[in-house]
Amino acid sequence: MSRRGRAVAFLLLALATAAIAAAIANGYGSSLAQGYGSLRPVVVLAADLPSDEPIGPREVAALEVRRVPVRFVPAGALASPGEALGLAPKAALPAGSYLLASLLRRPGNDGVASVGLGGGRRPVEIAVSGAGALLAAGPASAGARVDVVVTEEPSGSGPGRTHVAAAAVPLIALGPGPDGPGPGGLAGATLGLTRRQALRLIAAQNFARQVTLLPGG
Question: Which of 2, 29, 99, 172 has its CA 20 to 30 A from that of 70?
């Protein structure tokens, strides 16, 4: 075989090897996607962030975006570094951790005082379910008005009654509950409630099937 013929043969062999490797990698990626579900972008800290220091353009440029299977993404994880611009960590955050909306606040926002409670309302924390959308909304959701919906345990063969137990109450703060984020996990919601509303909802979280927040109340 001539020198030119050997060169052509080596080139064809290299192309075939590359094609096989690409097919294997594609198949591996497909098997991962099938096993763990679709991927979602999440923001990860490339360096430590100090507490109470507003995140500026320099800090935003240092944030990394990684694609993680949806089932492993914590509730409230930011998807874009730009979402953190102007916000401040509530506590020092170590490098390598996810950047969660519940860990950030607007500078000068000290929670209860900034919401402007009145009319005999006081801050009360209750456990709620189905708060993923509000957690994803981040610190901007604080101060919004929400309806608290209670689903009672069924008394017979039919479904339990669902009703609004407290309408248009101020949401002061929201964060993952003791069981952590994820499907089925509870969130801790601090609401501005009257004494009557607080007693009703405290009883509901102990005896009802589910307590849920409905945005835009």
Answer: 172
Count of structural domains within the chain: 2
Measure the CA angle with vertex 179, ends 175 and 180; round to 5°: 50
Q: Are residues 138 and 191 in the same domain?
A: yes
Q: What pLDDT shows up at residue 208? A: 81
Confidence check: pLDDT of 151 > 60: yes
Largest distance between two CA atoms of the chain: 95
Specify the pTM. 0.45
Residue 23 included in any domain? no
Identify whether residues 194 and 140 lie together within a single domain: yes
Rounded CA-CA distance 6/107 in Å is 69
Question: What percent helix, strand, coil does the chain show, rounded to 5?
Answer: 35, 30, 35
Domain coverage including residue 79: 39-105
Beta strand 162-176 with 145-151: parallel, antiparallel or unpaired? antiparallel
Domain boundary among 105, 128, 159: 105
